[in-house]
Specification:
The chain has 330 residues and is mainly α. Helix content is 65%, strand content 4%. The chain has 15 helices and 6 strands. The longest helix is centred in the first third of the chain and has 34 residues, at 90-123.
Length: 330
């Protein structure tokens, strides 16, 4: 049996002053991590200056109205009541909101399933995977101006190639000036947007699919599971968090959309406001268009409604979808 020897007392343990330096038994208190502040400060300042401050100021402006003397006067929720009920603003607001919902549903029901399908095909491997991944993602990095100009040329009933292509395959009778008809303009632009941005959900789904452990797939194959069963019963439940992220990104992006519709149809979002969404309504209300004078306070009210709609969607995602996924994972 070994002998337990006492640990000798040293100046460091006793807190004795050695050579003018006080060696204490207590650990030194942690200093404030100033380096973190140094690294975060530029980003926080820029974000606050260009994002937080304009947002707060827009919300403030929505509670004011401009008087005859060009001064701002506090009017409370009067601008919101006017936006919902006034004969000039209400039809445009409810129409833009309805169109924005259609715009979002087309992306959710067409873009995201196609992105999931393409990601599943790319995740299976095979020759040319990198090439196809690059080609499918390429439209995403193109400018809205280029996309709008190209598709205006393709679908033009005067000099577009769409009619010629349909005639070449025997479907010429189906051609219509889709961008010029009220019944088809919004869906057509939505599908153009799907073509442009399908690469984003594809890449996100692809990253989630290739991150699934191969052992789970091999175990399912050993048990006799088919490829269809492996995808829906193993892979898809494991990528549900990514499905939620793609869904909320689609929602936020669509209710912030403006560029593509403005490029193709202008601020009036024709024909007869058939492609008008919240972004174009805000632009037209705030800055004015043709005979319509700009109204910054009502424009700020439209922007505030856009913010509240997006915030509501994000909260629903956080408190319903995300919690449910976490419960399933546990």
């Amino acid at each position: 049996m070994g002998v337990v020897r006492p640990v000798p007392a040293t100046p460091a343990r006793l807190g004795i002053n050695v050579g003018g330096v006080n060696v204490s038994t207590k650990s030194k208190s942690r200093t404030f991590p100033t380096h973190i502040v140094v690294f975060l400060a530029p980003a926080v300042i820029v974000y606050t200056l260009f994002m937080i401050y304009p947002l707060i100021d827009s919300l403030r402006l929505s509670f004011f109205a401009t008087g005859p003397d060009n001064k701002e006067y506090f009017v409370g929720f009067q601008n919101y009541v006017k936006l919902f009920t006034d004969s000039d603003y209400a039809p445009r607001f409810w129409g833009a909101l309805k169109n924005n919902i259609v715009f979002f549903l087309v992306h959710m029901l067409v873009q995201n399933p196609i992105g999931l399908l393409l990601a599943a095909l790319l995740a299976t491997g095979g020759w040319g995977r990198k090439f196809y991944r690059t080609v499918l993602f390429m439209p995403t990095v193109l400018s809205f101006v280029i996309i709008g100009f190209i598709w205006n040329l393709i679908l033009s009933p005067l000099w577009g190639v769409a009619e010629s292509i349909l005639k070449a395959v025997g479907l010429g009778a189906l051609f219509r000036p889709w961008l010029g008809l009220e019944s088809t303009a919004l869906v057509t632009i939505s599908l153009i947007s799907v073509w442009q941005f399908v690469g984003i959900p594809m890449v996100l789904f692809y990253a989630a699919l290739i991150g699934i452990p191969e052992e789970l797939i091999e175990a399912a194959r050993v048990d006799g599971a088919t490829g269809w069963q492996i995808f829906w019963r193993i892979k898809f439940p494991l990528i549900l968090p990514t499905v939620g992220i793609v869904g909320i990104l689609t929602f936020v992006g669509n209710f912030n959309a403006f560029d593509l519709i403005y490029t193709i149809k202008g601020a009036l979002a024709g024909p007869n406001f058939a492609t008008d969404i919240m972004g174009t309504l805000f632009y037209r209300t705030f800055f004015g268009q043709q005979l319509q004078l700009g109204n910054p306070t009502m424009g700020a009210t439209v922007a505030a409604m856009m913010f509240l709609i997006i915030l509501s969607g994000v909260l629903i995602y956080m408190f319903l979808w995300q919690r449910r996924v976490q419960t399933v994972e546990m």
